[in-house]
Amino acid sequence: MIGQSIALADMTPDGELVHRIKTGEKELFEIIMRRYNQRMYRIGMSILADEAETEDAMQNAYISCYEHLQQFESRSAFSTWLTRIMINQCFEQKRKQKKYTMKVENTDHTATSSSPDALLVNKELGNVMEKAIAQLPEIYRTVFVLREIEDLSVKETSEVLSIEVPNVKVRLNRAKTMLKESLSGYMNHHVYDFHLSKCDRVVSFVMNRVLAMP
Fold first, then answer.
1. Contact between residue 123 and residue 50 where contact means Cβ atoms under 8 Å apart
2. How many CA atoms lie within 13 Å of 115's alpha carbon, on the beta-carbon side?
3. pLDDT tens digit string along 114-165?
4. pTM, two decimal places
5. DSSP one-letter code for 110
6. Nearest alpha carbon to residue 81 among 60, 96, 64
7. Are 54 and 48 contacting, i.e. CB atoms less than 8 angstroms apart?
8. 67-209-55-89 Cα dihedral, nearest 10 degrees
9. Residue spans of alpha helices (H) in the chain
């Protein structure tokens, strides 16, 4: 394992890393993962609102990325390509969740005390802004996270979400109006932090799979 500090300090451009990984230096995929773990986690939380589901989505997205790396032709930025894979994975898991929930509801009519809000507010994400973001409808929440927290451009956000540029702007403006003004100063800090222990867990799982591949 390369290690958190070394991986984050590596300034090698994505394109060069991808090329070297394609030619056999698969251990460099760890640098890619550690470079984008925070973004991937924030995206996952903005869509799935569940830590365990988000980590599963990250692992599956990274494995899919590695398996299809030879197909990446640099027509778009690697970060955009990877982000799109993560978003697609999250929505796929959400569809599966919905199907499972419908099946359970159709077969089990017992009462439940679970609150929908329980999925939105993770105990580890206790600060006010995270709660405010979690309360946004998904279509606004995801755009807000990509634009204001991950600092993607309007064009990049449009590409990864497959929506028109005007829609990105409208959804972002709507998201901002739905958040309290008092949160504006916290926009880029301490939101959906992907702690080192989680980072190491995801990296270890994926790298074990990657290194075992032919």
1. no
2. 5
3. 344 433 333 433 457 787 888 899 999 999 999 999 999 999 999 999 999 9
4. 0.73
5. -
6. 64
7. yes
8. 20
9. 4-9, 14-22, 29-48, 51-67, 78-107, 128-134, 138-144, 154-161, 165-178, 196-212
